[in-house]
Amino acid sequence: MAEYNGWTEMREYRVWQGEEIYSVVSVDLFKANGRVRIYVDSDLVGTETDLNAAYMKAEARAHDLVREAQDACSCGEPAEECGSAYDAPHGVRLQVTDEEENRELDPTEY
Description:
By secondary structure, this protein is of the alpha+beta class. The protein has one helix at 51-72, and strands at 3-4, 7-17, 20-30, 35-40, 43-48, 92-98, 103-104. It has one domain. The protein is built from one helix and seven strands; from the N terminus they run βββββαββ. Strand 1 and strand 2 form a beta hairpin. The protein is elongated.
């Protein structure tokens, strides 16, 4: 779990395009006052006062980025079929990591 200047990284949503990271959405919590920040790559895109609301916004943004990565993929498959096979060399997938527990979350957990 990364901490810096009082901020703790709580969750990270990584959008993979093949073996490369396409984009990262992260949720950071300032424990002293409960403020939550949402970043896409290193750009601040929102703040919240509720951690669960921040998770929902971050997940929605990550799913938007998955669609964007599928559209940008050069595989020639329709966007909705791009990466349908997890091991596809061009596959687009979402990986969510809970930084507090230091583990990847199953899709039913986020």
